[in-house]
Specification:
Elements: E1 4-12, E2 16-21, E3 24-29, E4 45-55, E5 63-69, H1 72-81, H2 89-95, H3 100-109, H4 112-116, H5 122-133, H6 160-170, H7 175-188, H8 195-209
Antiparallel strand pairs: 1-2, 1-4, 2-3, 4-5
Helix pairs in contact: 6-7, 6-8, 7-8
Length: 210
């Protein structure tokens, strides 16, 4: 599983952060409150806690989408929010225009007015969120605000092969092809110890094949 992404912030779109990693620019979908101007200085290191999910239907129409969060707590809150019927990953990200602590506080207070004001929620969905999550999100109320949170690089994930596979899927490679590329890279360079080195070896091998 791809647990974290460590790279350099390059910019943003309306729904995503652009993160440069080993010469690649990855589009990482994030909660809307993480897109506020000035939160991440361009050219500076950024560390995001990630989720990878497959969008689409049918085995031949699935596209990998990478999601990012400023902390593990934000990611856990997102997981709980998407457990509410009718709230998918993209809908949850669009709805999070406020920091997690504020949304959690509204849920625990039964504040349907605030929740229904979030994009795409409405009164009925707000009531569903409260019914499902009230009493379960109190740990998130006291968390730090997004503007004060991590943008520092950290050591790579322990399972570098799985992380590298997830990145190749995000880049659009089919899983069998990505696995073949990784096996070839590991055969050429069995001593690699990080996902970054492994991806570099994959593309080095592609260049040699070309």
């Amino acid at each position: 599983m791809l647990d974290q992404l460590h790279g350099t912030f390059q910019g943003s779109t309306e729904i995503a952060l652009l993160v440069q990693w080993q010469g690649l620019t990855l589009e990482v979908l994030v909660p809307m409150f993480l897109l506020q101007p000035g939160l991440f200085p361009p050219g500076q290191p950024i560390s995001l806690y990630t989720r990878l999910y497959l969008q689409g239907s049918g085995m031949n129409n699935l596209n990998p989408v990478l999601l990012g969060f400023a902390s593990r707590e934000e990611r856990e809150f997102f997981d709980r929010l998407t457990s509410v019927e009718g709230i998918g990953p993209k809908a949850a990200l669009r709805a999070l225009t406020l920091p997690v602590a504020d949304v959690a506080r509204a849920i625990e207070a039964g504040d349907t007015r605030l929740l229904s004001s979030l994009p795409g929620i409405g009164k009925q969905r707000a009531s569903q969120i409260i019914a499902k999550l009230k009493g379960k999100v109190t740990p998130f109320i006291g968390g730090p605000q997004a503007s004060t949170r991590v943008v520092h690089p950290a050591p790579p994930a322990a399972d570098s092969e799985e992380e590298a596979l997830a990145i190749l899927l995000q880049l659009g490679y089919k899983k069998p092809e990505a696995e073949r590329m990784l096996r070839a890279a590991l055969t050429r360079s069995p001593g690699v110890t990080s996902a970054e080195e492994l991806i570099q070896e994959v593309f080095r091998g592609q260049g040699q094949e070309g």
